[in-house]
Design a protein that fits this description.
The protein is an alpha/beta fold and about 400 residues long. It contains 10 helices and 12 strands. It folds into 2 domains: about 280 residues, Glycosidases (TIM Barrel, Alpha-Beta Barrel), CATH 3.20.20; about 70 residues, Membrane-bound Lytic Murein Transglycosylase D, Chain A, CATH 3.10.350. The strands form 2 sheets. Strands 1, 2, 3, 4, 5, 6, 7, 8, 9 and 10 form a 10-stranded mixed sheet that branches. Strands 11-12 form a two-stranded antiparallel sheet.
Length: about 400
């Protein structure tokens, strides 16, 4: 499950939405684009879970133009030993594991696949820069192992856990630097939590969060149509841009989930109020398949109806802070030698930015954050990572 379970059982909490103050209710600068590739103009997404015998990616109905690959989890179990995460191979009852990389490549030719990190009882702690760096390194490794994916879905904070906004922004910036600004960053927060709302707005203000999808299921009254509509209204106002907001549905016959009629009614209402909404997701693809694909075949076309077109005028995006340069240690490197080669006045400036560095014990492959004053080396560093062509 991907929902948060920390709310008080009962409906009292649903009576009021959080009251936030500036800047979280301030509109974003305009003009702004509602179309950001690789996310479709209108997202119709499903969480593709690895357990059981999932349907092969190639066989996910075409009405789903996006899947969230669920999931990468912390090495050593939550909250993780180092900050690194690992991909969980799907069950292979129908060949989903055997054919995964080939199916993923085929899927990505026409649709979007986003890696989810975290989930219920799988949160990952990236509260320090060292842990955030380990997390980033592991995402790069998974990217290579799977042959690529189109974005990252931050699902690593839930319940009483506080999202580390600073480190999540930093990681997101690094990923967009590595894989391009079109590398999508998404997140499915708890709709009622003021801290989640403030965190997501800060991510948007930093220019790194492309789509936020509050999730309306698996809790008392969360799946009620009137609550969904009222909450989406609030999220659109607080995020300042309907084009960054999606709706997380749970279409199921289970308690605290929505029927097809509720999903259809809620979507029609919120789409009429906010025509620029980015789309919707369903938890999850396996449940949808077990019910005969009602979300894919009935809700999907409804969501895509009236999607914004990709002929909007040029935009002026919020400028991203320039990420610090990274140096990858090679054999024979010393802090003083690196400082001299890169025009840094004092090697201690490098040490101050890297808490885990032993000046006399640099290890080949170790990644060092460099101060702003570092210049480009005269000869390209062969060990430095490069984004894919």
């Amino acid at each position: 499950m991907i929902t948060r379970r920390s709310f008080v059982v009962g409906a009292a909490w649903a009576a009021a939405l959080p009251t936030l103050t500036h800047p979280y209710d301030k509109p974003l600068p305009t003009p702004r684009s509602k179309v950001m590739t690789p996310l479709p103009n209108r997202v119709v997404a499903g969480y593709w879970t690895h357990w059981g015998s999932p349907v092969r990616l190639r066989d996910v109905p075409a009405h789903y133009n996006t899947v969230f690959l669920f999931y990468a989890t912390p090495v050593g179990g939550a909250p993780g030993t180092t900050g690194a995460v690992q991909w969980n191979d799907p069950g292979d009852g129908r060949g989903a594991a055997t054919h995964f990389t080939a199916d993923l490549a085929e899927f990505r030719r026409t649709r979007t696949a986003i890696l989810t990190v975290g989930g219920a009882q799988a949160n990952v702690d990236i509260s320090t820069r060292a842990r955030a760096q380990a997390f980033l390194d592991s995402i790069e490794r998974i990217y290579g192992e799977l042959g690529g994916f189109d974005g990252l879905d931050w699902n690593n904070y839930e319940g009483d856990q506080q999202p580390n906004t600073e480190q999540m922004i930093w990681v997101s910036q690094q990923l967009k630097t590595l894989y391009g600004q079109d590398f999508a960053i998404t997140s499915p927060p708890a709709p009622w939590r003021a801290v989640d709302m403030a965190h997501c707005r800060a991510m948007i203000d930093a220019g790194v969060l492309d789509m936020v999808n509050p999730q309306y299921y698996d809790g008392p009254d969360l799946a009620a149509e009137n609550y969904i509509v009222r909450s989406v209204d609030e999220w659109v106002v607080r995020m300042g841009d309907a084009g960054r907001v999606g709706v997380g549905f749970g279409l199921s016959n289970a308690a605290n989930y929505s029927t097809s009629a509720v999903v259809e009614g809620a979507w029609k209402t919120v789409a009429a109020r906010h025509p620029g909404l980015r789309g919707a997701f369903n938890w999850n693809v396996a449940i949808d398949e077990s019910l005969g694909w009602p979300f894919a075949t009935d809700i999907g076309p409804l969501v895509r109806l009236g999607a914004p077109v990709a002929t909007l005028p040029p935009v002026f995006p919020i400028p991203l802070p320039t990420p610090r340069r990274i140096h990858t240690v090679v054999a024979g490197d010393t802090l003083s030698g690196i400082a001299t080669r890169l025009g840094i006045a004092d090697w201690k400036e490098i040490a101050d930015l890297n808490d885990d560095v032993e000046p006399e014990g640099l290890r080949p492959g170790q990644r060092l954050t460099l101060p702003d004053a570092a210049r480009e080396p005269a000869v390209p560093d062969p060990a430095a990572p490069h984004p894919p062509a």
